[in-house]
């Protein structure tokens, strides 16, 4: 009966209840939208890091990264590559030979990281070919062809077809200098890396470093479904038992931090919105309690004890949140699903974004666990905002209330 | 001899004792026996409501005690008191008697539900009660759809529902036209006679006073007179 009375009570002042319900709907929707939009933006950056730079998994010799020396290699690379390629959960795999070195042009010199790559495998791995802005992507067939970043080219004051010299230490600790010709200039989304990473043919670099053809310094793997990441990591241990196997979160702790901080961000944003809603709900419910002092007095007089009065007012508030929250969640979820597919084109608002490495298309997205956080916070809001008006109603003195009759 | 059902013993009530004391009720002794039909009369501000509220356990006396059917209600804890009211005392107020979102039937049934009466029994009793007050054709109307007189009759039916020993009515006819007022009083008198329920009602309406069999007059919070009469 209390449930029924409470339910009917909220419809006594339809307009007022609908305003509160709408504000809950809009609040929850807005929270979800803001969060999914920011997550879409973050996710975009993370994906770009993963897909054009890190890959999902990288495998190295355990001391390679510390020492930064190409003599710490993964052996039998070809055989291992074949095992990875045979696995249909893996989208792409590439091996690289890497050496720190110095690039010298007629005018100046700069420190670089030399990647010896198989050009064709990097097409699917980091889509390097898509970023070539001048020249071509390893099409001369010459072993000394080289791809450098636009920024580095500017710094070295070199152009396409210019000759440059790479100097580095080989595995025998001898200093090697070799001449290369710039066959292409690229411009990626990460301009700071453009200044450092230069790409050459793997075989040629191997020879210069005096590595065996089966030796490499890095194996990068892209998985098809990120949910398989951990299984593939385990699988990789079997393939490269003494390698150091790291996923993108371990490779780039700052990405991991972005993800972690987004949890906090979710709490803060939904907390602020729900706090504002709490005040709105409490205000309305207090108004409705104060309007009904005489009625509440009468209820106490005819035998409704304080616990029941408390429950009744709690229920009224709870019903209001209970109506608003699911609708807000649903509209929010629908918005995210639809916009997540169509994307939001920001280029009409801001042309500058792209130059900061942001894509102008944002695909809002929100993980399920964020919805769980929001639902949890809504429940807390519902309870918190229900308690105060109900508590206020308890403080009514029936005789005082009745005297007003 | 009939049993004492209400025993207000030397009851006083002072509002705002520390600031501007108002002695609303002073040293009142009232004995009411089972089955009586009593009017509490007096000018506005004479303490009628205050006295009724204390007898119903809605208000605590500053001094003295109220004993209802042998139970000293002035000693009961708040929740015990609410429970005592639920089972022993029916209230009818001047207005705001009913729960606006419930129909006449539900309003009357509500108290029975609070007493955990089974549904079938409850429905039957509610219908009987609404018939007794002549509202069998209004059982599904909400208070807003009923006239003032009809609302008060539902309130009487509701007050009766829990089979209380006494019904306290504070100016039940104040908002009614004289025809509805007479009608309500007739119903109350009939219930008093047939169901042996004790009625104590305050009023300052002469036509209502005439229907009582005993008239207690309050002046300035004190009993000025207490007389038996033959109702007309
Ligand atoms: N809560 C209160 N605070 C202060 N004075 C009150 C309060 N309630 C009633 N009174 C005073 O007590 C006196 C008796 O009031 P009441 O019992 O309502 O009289 P009646 O019902 O006969 O009109 C009046 O003078 C009234 O002003
Ligand atoms: Mg009064």
From TrEMBL, chain A:
<comment type="similarity">
    <text>Belongs to the ABC-4 integral membrane protein family. LolC/E subfamily.</text>
</comment>
<keyword id="KW-0472">Membrane</keyword>
<keyword id="KW-0812">Transmembrane</keyword>
<dbReference type="InterPro" id="IPR051447">
    <property type="entry name" value="Lipoprotein-release_system"/>
</dbReference>
<protein>
    <submittedName>
        <fullName>FtsX-like permease family protein</fullName>
    </submittedName>
</protein>
<dbReference type="Pfam" id="PF12704">
    <property type="entry name" value="MacB_PCD"/>
</dbReference>
<keyword id="KW-1003">Cell membrane</keyword>
<dbReference type="InterPro" id="IPR003838">
    <property type="entry name" value="ABC3_permease_C"/>
</dbReference>
<dbReference type="Pfam" id="PF02687">
    <property type="entry name" value="FtsX"/>
</dbReference>
<dbReference type="InterPro" id="IPR025857">
    <property type="entry name" value="MacB_PCD"/>
</dbReference>
<feature type="transmembrane region" description="Helical">
    <location>
        <begin position="371"/>
        <end position="391"/>
    </location>
</feature>
<keyword id="KW-1133">Transmembrane helix</keyword>
<feature type="transmembrane region" description="Helical">
    <location>
        <begin position="18"/>
        <end position="42"/>
    </location>
</feature>
<feature type="domain" description="MacB-like periplasmic core">
    <location>
        <begin position="17"/>
        <end position="233"/>
    </location>
</feature>
<feature type="transmembrane region" description="Helical">
    <location>
        <begin position="309"/>
        <end position="334"/>
    </location>
</feature>
<feature type="domain" description="ABC3 transporter permease C-terminal">
    <location>
        <begin position="268"/>
        <end position="398"/>
    </location>
</feature>
<feature type="transmembrane region" description="Helical">
    <location>
        <begin position="264"/>
        <end position="289"/>
    </location>
</feature>
Automatic annotation (TrEMBL), chain B:
<dbReference type="InterPro" id="IPR003593">
    <property type="entry name" value="AAA+_ATPase"/>
</dbReference>
<dbReference type="InterPro" id="IPR017911">
    <property type="entry name" value="MacB-like_ATP-bd"/>
</dbReference>
<dbReference type="InterPro" id="IPR015854">
    <property type="entry name" value="ABC_transpr_LolD-like"/>
</dbReference>
<dbReference type="InterPro" id="IPR017871">
    <property type="entry name" value="ABC_transporter-like_CS"/>
</dbReference>
<dbReference type="InterPro" id="IPR027417">
    <property type="entry name" value="P-loop_NTPase"/>
</dbReference>
<keyword id="KW-0547">Nucleotide-binding</keyword>
<protein>
    <submittedName>
        <fullName>ABC transporter ATP-binding protein</fullName>
    </submittedName>
</protein>
<keyword id="KW-0813">Transport</keyword>
<feature type="domain" description="ABC transporter">
    <location>
        <begin position="6"/>
        <end position="232"/>
    </location>
</feature>
<dbReference type="Pfam" id="PF00005">
    <property type="entry name" value="ABC_tran"/>
</dbReference>
<dbReference type="GO" id="GO:0005524">
    <property type="term" value="F:ATP binding"/>
</dbReference>
<dbReference type="InterPro" id="IPR003439">
    <property type="entry name" value="ABC_transporter-like_ATP-bd"/>
</dbReference>
<keyword id="KW-0067">ATP-binding</keyword>
